Amino acid sequence: MSGPRVVLGVSGGIAAYKACELLRRLTESGHDVTVVPTAAALEFVGAPTWAALSGKPVSAEVWDGVHEVPHVRLGQTADLVVVAPATADLLAKAAHGLADDLLTNTLLTARCPVVLAPAMHTEMWEHAATAANVATLRSRGVLVIEPAEGRLTGADTGKGRLPDPEEIFEVARDVLARSGAGGAGRPGVGVHDLAGRQVVVSAGGTREYLDPVRFLGNRSSGRQGYALARAAASRGAEVTLIAANVDLTDPAGVKVVRVGSTAELRDAVLTATASADAVVMAAAPADFRPTEASEVKIKKADDGSAPSITLQQNPDILKEISTHRARPEAVIVGFAAETGDATGSVLDLARAKLARKGCDLLVVNDVSGGAVFGSTDNEAVILGSDGSAVDVPHGTKSALAHLIWDQVVTRLT
Ligand code: CTP
Each residue of 43-52: b (16+ CB within 10 Å) or e? Predict the structure, then answer.
């Protein structure tokens, strides 16, 4: 196999079964994966499963195949080490440099990016010891993905769930791509350039209800916002994603706040922005709302007449957070879907909008052909309030997301 070499560490938590799906995604997309479970992980999922799915022998011990010095070689030759699930015990060992099995030895010898996806009960995650271990690991450039909230083992719910394996896969792929592209090759160098930063991303389209069942909405799928949140998380940021009516899987390590209307979006954005280093308004808020929403379903009239609806303007959130800045040093990014008209080209209109909104960057999509909405690709120009213009050729929403964060990082530092 010639794909990137990934060590998939699995420690002993019930979420170990989800790592089978992560392993499948990695191998099916051409990665050369060696699974290194801990002894406790093998209590949950046996070595034959890992061996069958990876196509390689599997061991938790440093005493197997000693002539190949696996406890040193695996880490040295890996392009990425990802541990999912990472238990509180594994985090503690990694933070303190303990090395009593093959996985912890591998973590000590790895010079590639390391991604840890913790999963444990909320009490363990919130314990001061775990918090300190996570802080230590992050300070060394390890990407520790925030656990998701939701149902835990047993009947309880809370923070501590392993994020969706598909989303951990996206983080792994992203980190690999960036470490290769940046030539960093060492954790913490270039790859996680948003570490320690708080960012807010809004996504999706708001809905303004006319009655309990009907609403005014728009076609925004939320994909670009989700790509931005995913990209920021894999670059180490603490991400709040404010999602308006989006039907997509939560990105790994991202706090998702769900909203419905523009008023709810505004409240959530204002709250999250108070401490943010960067805000990206990728959502499409409804510009108008009915002056009055009916509490009961509006009935059809027998005479065939239609009700008239009076609309009023919603607040412009991007303009508000740009002109009344909670933190003057924060970088604020807006989006503009433009079509040229008689008064100017797409770029002329976009420059005027950038000035009108007062943000630092404006990502401009030319939507003359009706493209972009719901698609997985995008192309854009990123305009800066300093007069800069970066052309982004046709590509994935993830690629555009990273170019936007590149521009943000330049302005943050
Ligand atoms: N936006 C916002 N609040 C609104 C409407 C839009 O924050 N009520 C943000 C979007 O999230 C996006 C940018 O503003 O970042 C896009 O604005 P757009 O809707 O294209 O522009 P309009 O506000 O309609 O522009 P105009 O001032 O030309 O009407």
Answer: ebbeeebbee
Q: Work out the pLDDT band at 89, boundaries 50, 70, 90.
A: very high
Helices (H), 150-305: 165-182, 223-234, 262-273
Q: Are the beta carbons of 208 and 289 closer than 8 angstroms?
A: yes
CA of 222 to the centre of ligand 1 (A): 15
Residue 193 lies in a domain: no
Tell me which residue has its CA closest to atom 25 in ligand 1. Answer: 353
What is d(CA 246, CA 63) in angstroms, rounded to the nearest whole number? 49
Ligand 1 close to Cβ of residue 144 (< 6 A): no
Kindly state whether residues 147 and 220 are assigned to the same domain. Answer: no
Q: Which domain holds residue 58?
A: 5-179
Is the shortest distance between the CB of 318 and ligand 1 below 6 Å?
A: yes
- Please enumerate in sequence order all residues whose Cβ is within 8 A of that of 79, keeping only pairs 6 or more positions apart, or say none: 4, 5, 6, 112, 176, 179, 180
**pTM surpassing 0.90?**
yes
**185 falls in which pLDDT band (50, 70, 90)?**
very low
Q: Are residues 160 and 277 in the same domain?
A: no
The CATH number of whichever domain residue 56 belongs to comes to: 3.40.50.1950
> Do 325 and 207 sit in the same domain of this protein?
yes
